[in-house]
Amino acid sequence: MTGPRSSTVSTSPLVNPDKDRRLHKRVALSIAGRVLDDDGIDHEMTRIDISCSGAIIRSDYRPEAGAQVICYFNELGRVAATVIRATPTDFAAHFRIVQHKREKLADRLTWLLNKDRLDLTDDRTGQRAAAGGPALLTLDDGREIKCRVLDISLTGASFEAERATPMVGDTVFAGNVRGEVVRVTGKTFAIRYLRK
Fold it and tell me: E strands, the chain, where?
């Protein structure tokens, strides 16, 4: 008598030649995202089939095989990738990430696939705050704000200032990214990215 079949992927050396030989199982996720090309222009993704090693991305943008792109996946973050092939409707990209980041991505994908079924709550705020690093923002008038990154996403970011904070409505620059301050609470403030 055999027990219930495991849901984990088999690592047996006996491989069915008709099966997909991808290194990691790919799943379809309805998440928003954008892809940044070599010229710094971002393009919207309309569908994503993703694994922790790569993705099939449906987009009006059609990069050529070999192109280097940056993918911003909502709820997953930023991933550098190499385009391996393109079709009339989408393109396939292989992620260029180190092993520990690949493992974190796999954990996050597992969470996203199960959160509704298991009625899970998102606990990313605390995890992201612990991973914050230093940042230097510049206001329109040239003043600089030394701060620490608390949270970063596809649409904006939040910071904790060392001293004075900007005011709601101020425009700030973080490198070549432009944003508008949308919230200030004590020493913390949030910006919304302003896209071209």
Answer: 27-29, 33-36, 42-50, 54-59, 68-73, 77-86, 90-95, 134-139, 144-152, 156-161, 171-174, 177-185, 188-193
